[in-house]
């Protein structure tokens, strides 16, 4: 059940999609009586603030914002080289070359306070966490301004972690999830198997 401050005409929360969610989609869902989740996982704090401002221009209804809370990758040159060599035939199939190096394209919400502070100022109705949880200090900042907090969980252990962290809503996610299954620890053995050992 949704907290009272999130009373919706329709019991539908649109799944967040980084790089795909737009303010226009967010506003359309919220205007229709559901709750949108603007996926800002791939955005800088400035771009995310602009998307929130634009959504507010299009609707005065509540909407949610979704962030990525993964542990940032520590660059491992040998591992990157193995991935690039493994992928080389795929690039060759399309007459192109693999990139010289790999880089992380999604900044983690947990790495700086910048997005957290921006969200506390903008205070969307809901903030949802994906691929893990932020620390208690960040959760406290968001709670202090009355934001409802949600987290994706993919196992009982993660559900307990999120509940103990003070999250209000759990989003239970199976293995399908459009390639975006929000597991907290990618090296944990999962129902669909672990990461191949050669990587
Ligand atoms: C293109 C794409 C992008 C996604 N981006 C996010 C995201 O930014 N945050 C998130 O929590 N889930 C993300 N997901 C997962 C979806 O929110 C959702 O959990 C998944 O699509 C399963 O729901 P469905 O069965 O209704 O499609 C993404 C899914 C897709 C297909």
Automatic annotation (TrEMBL):
Cofactors: FMN
Swiss-Prot/TrEMBL catalytic activity: 3 propionate 3-nitronate + 3 O2 + H2O = 3 3-oxopropanoate + 2 nitrate + nitrite + H2O2 + 3 H(+)
Family: Belongs to the nitronate monooxygenase family. NMO class I subfamily.
A Gene Ontology biological process term: response to toxic substance
MF annotations from Gene Ontology: nitronate monooxygenase activity
Top-level division of the source organism's lineage: Bacteria
Alphabetical list of InterPro entries matching this protein: Aldolase_TIM (IPR013785), NMO (IPR004136)
KW Nucleus (keyword) present: no
SUPFAM superfamilies in UniProt: Inosine monophosphate dehydrogenase (IMPDH)
CDD domains: NPD_like
One Pfam family of this chain: NMO
UniProt-recorded name of the protein: Propionate 3-nitronate monooxygenase
Keyword Transport: no
Organism: Acetobacter oeni
Keywords: Detoxification, Flavoprotein, FMN, Monooxygenase, Oxidoreductase
